[in-house]
Amino acid sequence: MNVTYLINELKSDYVSEQLDSYRTGTTIPMIKKDDFLEVVIKLPPIEEQKAKVQGITEVSKRIEKLHNERNALANSKAILEFNEFASLKHTLGRPRQNILDWSNNIHHFFTY
């Protein structure tokens, strides 16, 4: 039996439903050892277990990669926004004689 497969099956819906039916107590729910041993878990041949674990591992790695890419994009966007804001502050901080230059800079900052 593949341990990773077993852990995944223990988190599945059909096992959760069985555990809910055996669970006692409201404040601190618990399951008796004898009741836990009555829970039925599907155990296909070891080849199928390995294939399912491999699929779960691949999906997990893909999700982690996408999560890292999303974080990198969010971080680069935050840096870009900060740099644009710093540039705008610097531009507005310089003495200017023409008020239209200021308004054009502000308009450019909010539209791009």
Write the layout of secondary structure elements.
Blueprint: H1 3-10, H2 13-22, H3 33-36, H4 46-93, H5 99-111
Your description of this structure?
The chain folds into two domains: 42 residues, no CATH class; 69 residues, no CATH class. The longest helix has 48 residues. 2% of the residues are buried. The mean pLDDT is 85. The chain is mainly α.
DSSP strand content: under 5%
Helix content: over 70%
Number of E-type strands: 0
Radius of gyration: 29 Å
**Number of distinct helices:** 5
How can the largest sheet be summarized?
none
Query: Residue-averaged pLDDT, rounded?
Result: 85
Order of helix and strand elements from N to C terminus? HHHHH
Give the termini separation.
58 Å
Low-confidence stretches: none
Judging from the principal axes of the Cα atoms, what is the shape?
elongated
Q: By helix and strand content, what is the structural category?
A: mainly alpha
Key features of this structure:
112 residues; 0% strand
Question: In short, what is this structure?
Answer:
The chain is mainly alpha-helical and 112 residues long. Helix content is 74%, strand content 0%.
